[in-house]
C-alpha cells in the first residue's frame, strides 16, 4: 500500500527558490524538498495565478520601505 505524504508548503517554496538559485533541472531537485513533480506543479500554479508576482511585489515594497533596496542603476 502506497501512502501519500503531504509536504509542508514551506519546503515546497524552499525547493522552488533552491531550483531558481542553482538552475538545476527540476528532476535533480534534492529529495528533502519533496517530489520534484510536486514542486514543479506548485511553481507552475503559482506563476500562472499571479502568486509569484504578488510575492515579488510585496518583497520589493518591504525592501524599499526599510531602505534595503538601492534603486540606483549602474552604468556599464
What is the topological layout?
Layout (H helix, E strand, L loop, with lengths): L8 H14 L13 H13 L2 H15 L11
Helix pairs in contact: 1-2
Give an overview of the whole structure.
The chain is an all-alpha fold. It is built from 3 helices and no strands. Helix 1 crosses helix 2. The radius of gyration is 16 Å and the shape is elongated. The N and C termini lie far apart (60 Å). The relative contact order is 0.10.
In short:
The chain is built from three helices and no strands. By secondary structure, the chain is mainly alpha-helical. The mean pLDDT is 89.
User: Structural class, please?
Assistant: mainly alpha
Helix content: 55-70%
How large is the share of residues in beta strands?
under 5%
Net shape = elongated
What are the low-pLDDT stretches, counting only 5+ consecutive residues below 50? none
Amino acid at each position: 500500500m502506497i501512502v501519500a505524504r503531504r509536504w509542508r508548503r514551506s519546503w515546497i517554496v524552499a525547493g522552488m527558490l533552491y531550483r531558481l538559485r542553482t538552475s538545476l533541472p527540476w528532476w535533480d531537485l534534492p529529495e528533502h524538498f519533496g517530489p520534484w513533480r510536486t514542486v514543479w506543479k506548485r511553481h507552475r500554479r503559482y506563476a500562472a495565478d499571479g502568486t509569484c508576482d504578488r510575492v515579488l511585489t510585496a518583497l520589493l515594497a518591504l525592501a524599499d520601505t526599510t531602505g534595503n533596496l538601492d534603486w540606483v542603476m549602474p552604468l556599464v
